Amino acid sequence: MHAKGNVRRRILDSLNKPRWLTAVLIGPILTLFFSILLFPFLLEIYLSYTPWHPRLGDWWNAEFIGVENYVYLLTKDPRFLWSLARTGIFVIIVIFIEFGLGLLLATLFTRKFRFGEKRTIFTILLLPMMMMPIIVGYNFYMIFQPRGPLNYVLGLIIQQPVEINWLNEPLLAWIALIVTDVWHWTPFMFLILLSGLISLPQNPIDAAKVLGATSWQIFKGIQLPMLRNIIIIALVIRAMEAKNFFDELFIMTRGGPGTATENISMWTYQFGAVNVRIGFSSAGAIIILITTVLIISFAVRPIIRAMR
Amino acid sequence: MTEVSLEDLRREFGKTVAVDNLSLKIRDKHFISILGPSGCGKTTTLRMIAGLLPPSKGRIYFDDKDVTDLSPRDRKVGLVFQDYAVFPHMNAFENIAWGLKVRKINPEDMRLKVKEIAELLNITDILRTMPSRMSQSELQRVALARTLVTNPTVLLLDEPLSNLDASLRARMRAELKKLQVDINQTVIYVTHDQIEAMSLSNEIAVMNLGKLQQYDTPDNIYHNPANMFVAGFIGSPPMNFIHCSIIEENGTIFLDQGTFRLDVTNLKDDLQKGMTSTEAILGVRPEDIGISISPLNGYIECSVYAYEPIGSESIIDATVGGTIIRALASETFTAKVGNSIYIRFDMDRIHIIDKKTENVII
Amino acid sequence: MSEQFIEKKLGIFGYCVIILALIFTLFPIYWMISTSLKPQVDWIATPPVWIPERAVIENYQVLFMEVKKEYGTAGTEWIGGAFIPASGSILSSAITAGFGTLFSIIIGILAAFGISRHKMGGPSFPLMILMIRMIPPVVSIIPLIVLYSNLRLIDTYQGLIIAYTLFTAPYSIWMIKSFIDDVPRELEEVGIAEGLTQLEAHFKITLPLIKGGVIATALFLLILNWSEFLFALVLTHGNIVTIPVQETRYFTYSGVQYGPQAALGVVAIIPLFIFGFFIQKYLARGLTFGAIKR
Questions:
Q1: Please, which residues 12-41 of chain C have a Cβ atom closer than 8 Å to chain A?
Q2: S-S: C67 plus which of B16, B340, C19, C83, CB 3.0-4.6 Å?
Q3: Contacts with A, C 180-219, CB within 8 Å
Q4: Cα separation of A239 and A225, whole Å?
Q5: Beta-carbon neighbour count of residue C238 at 10 Å?
Q6: C243 and chain A: CB distance < 8 Å anywhere?
Q7: pLDDT confidence band for C75 (50 / 70 / 90)
Q8: What is the pLDDT of residues B142-198, one digit of tens each?
Q9: Mean pLDDT, to the nearest integer, of C123-141?
């Protein structure tokens, strides 16, 4: 009973402000939100219950087929399910590699450095993050060519000509894509973790030193736990973006060879924009959304807590 | 069993010299305070003793061992920070046990030791509480416990009471005093509060601007300050400094302020030995000044400038000859601004300071 | 003792790691720059040409001129005949990214004030905004195709700009909100006591104080919008071509035109690096929606 009264009072409070002020300030974003996000979303739900594609005429006259699309996608379409699986595996691999490398770089950077210009090195290491994903994709496309520089260097190392066709072998293509994403986004982890490390209060660390701990014990027992919130934020944000991996994928493999590197973005693009089977791909998109929401609701709580 | 010796310690930060030429010998099991205003170098000194900051020059010895190049880990000291620096992600027990945990003490012994120290410091019931829920005094005791449980040879405390409010501070002072007896270790205590230093220490090292001003027992620091800084820093309300000249008239030596003069012929020999010129500063503590409403023989006439009753005493500011002198009177003494009062200095307790060198000659 | 030994070993290890990281980081960028300067014959040569001795600027020229015939330094030929000038795409990118950012900032400032100062929309409103970004873009894009078709927004500047505005709004709102939060509310209250209205207090008192933050946010959004690919790919059909879409056009039937592709890449990257350099301080804050302030 109390809780209900609270919520009601709060909503009334926010409406009590001069109405026009509310309209001016959050009107625009709400308008955009409802028209470009919410309404299309409802449309999508509707369409997912139809087999509609543009050649069938007007969408508002589309035939209603119930959950046929969903059933098909979830039970009879390995291609869709595989794209979900590939996305999940990709995200996990990629965020852990990036986290590990980012943490390594961040801890190195907080130690005393005989280098000279920490600032310049820092700026350089951050560059990949600022590059256009499509260009990153293109660069690595070039590098992973059978006659490209990577194979050449590998050939030098093992003293034999190497002509691996990275982007045309399923497993190798994945490795190429993972390397690309790691190159692109490790700086993000590095930046966030470094910010976090620097912002840690020094006194507890000094206290730990005096108490007799080794650097490793301090790192594991004091610094990392104090970074917990930041680590969670970094991982969740990176995971959110990693599941959308598209640009580089498009240029490097287009989902291929065959469908070996097709993730959920590629699948949706293929069926939604290329084949324009709107009804079918809408159902797929909804399933993807539900899965995302479920997974996020496990992760969002720590983020909210951390952001307070 | 640890005697701490500092030899010629110096620490620079870029162009600033935080500590200069500091030499100190702290006897085993003694409680000494490093006392001084903010920025005088006391925390820097403490951190050097702990091993967190390497000195720019000089050596540090524990007993006869040169520890200057040893890491904090190898020095086996204990350090309690001003903000306690309790680990926020562990409860009290884990905090206290941590020093033992990293030394790989077995869990059973660990639990016993923590329990023991918790009982000593009266924090047994908050052992499972998280730091975010603890009061300042609880945090401070956890920080203390965490340090004490590792049995350090030297205990270093950096202004441990400055974050507490006044009433709590007085109480913790008493507890610290009792604790010192219990733990029976060499303690180095950094503070800017002279009452703490005076009440808790065997010896006090007064520092200012990075240099040691005087290292002596509280009694001597109070009664025989070495220089003007120490004389003015110790004592509340602070000592009065009155500019005078030393003049000789017919075989009598006078301390001449201009409006009044004091006969100091009996101090002639010491004055001749110590003074570098005839410019002197007369130092007299407010509590060493006698006050009378009515004119008495030998008393100097002044006018009341300000009158502050502070409960058990009153502070009277009196003007004479262009200077203001502060005196302490009993609570029953009432004075009105503008009225005349008559003061007399306790000649056994005055100090004469050489104006140029600022050394206390008498 | 062993602690110091470990420290030393770590120092050397660290040194190596940083050097490796630098090489790893710089190599692809270097490769792109060098490819952009290579004549066609060197694009995918074996052994790879590490330093373009025969550096040319044709690849860059081709971006801005239409070339129909064979063209090249002596003894070389272009594959294919036609090269699409890319200057149009640079302009298109500038327009869509520029206006998208502008509108996003305006909406962002308004909403940020609403949320920060007035807690409008209730306690879960900020989270709702975050959701915009959490939804996979592909999910939102499908119905947009339909909607835009009906509204004839496909392949128009307006269509793209609207989409860009909405989907960068979360960053805009959260970042600006975090800047507003840093300014004490009391300053506005003083203004209101002096007779200003609520809105005037916002814009005349707080806004000037967060000018730097707003500019940083704008640059951040510019980076995002300038690089945006998916929406541009799906919502345009050739009338409007932004830089990322243009890049895909270098995969021709007769081969990949690596040179011009790299040249366009270099040209496109420069503004990003410049913006990035200026907002270095705010990067952490932006990427984490204001959660982490350096």
A1: 14-15, 17-18, 21-22, 24-26, 28-29, 31-32, 35
A2: C83
A3: 198-199
A4: 21
A5: 8
A6: yes
A7: very low
A8: 998 999 888 888 999 999 888 888 888 888 888 888 888 877 788 999 999 888 899
A9: 82
What is chain C's mean pLDDT, rounded? 82
Alpha-carbon distance C108 to C175, whole Å? 9
Find, in chain C, the residue whose alpha carbon is nearest to that of A24: C110
**What residues does each domain of chain A span?**
2-39, 68-307
Q: Is residue C294 part of a domain?
A: no
* pTM of the complete model: 0.83
Query: Stretch A229-254: mean pLDDT, rounded?
Result: 89
Q: Quick one: C14 and C159 in the same domain?
A: no
Superfamily of domain A68-307: MetI-like (1.10.3720.10)
A212–B150 C-beta distance less than 8 A: yes
Number of domains in chain C: 2
Judge whether C180 lies within some domain: yes
Q: Based on the domain organization, do C10 and C150 belong to the same domain?
A: no
Pairing of strands B261-263, B252-256: antiparallel
From CA C207, how far away is CA A107, in angstroms rounded? Answer: 37
Chains interfacing with B (3 or more CB pairs < 8 Å):
A, C
Q: Please state, as a whole number, how many other Cβ atoms lie within 10 Å of the Cβ of residue B113.
A: 20
Q: Tokens representing A302?
A: 């720590």
Q: Phi/psi zone of residue C213: left (φ > 0), alpha (ψ -120 to 50 degrees), beta?
A: alpha
Question: Is it true that the peptide bond before B237 is cis, omega within 30 degrees of 0?
Answer: yes
- Alpha carbon C215 to its chain centroid, in Å, reads 15
What's the pLDDT at B156?
92
Q: Tell me how far apart the alpha carbons of residues B248 and B260 are, in angstroms, rounded to a whole number.
A: 15
Read off φ and ψ for residue C232, nearest 5 degrees: -65, -40
CA distance C30 to C51: 10
**Residue B22 three-state SS:** strand
Position A14 confidence tier, pLDDT thresholds 50, 70, 90:
low
Measured between CA atoms, how close is A101 to chain C, in angstroms? 9
> Which band of pLDDT confidence, cut at 50, 70 and 90, is reported for residue A308?
low
A203 in B contact zone (CB under 8 Å): yes
| C58: containing domain | 2-64
Same domain assignment for residues C153 and C257: yes
- Over 60: is that where the pLDDT of C77 sits? no
Per-residue confidence at C72, pLDDT binned at 50, 70, 90? very low
The domains found in chain B, sorted by start residue, are 4-233 (3.40.50.300), 245-354 (2.40.50.140)
**What is the CATH number for C93?**
1.10.3720.10
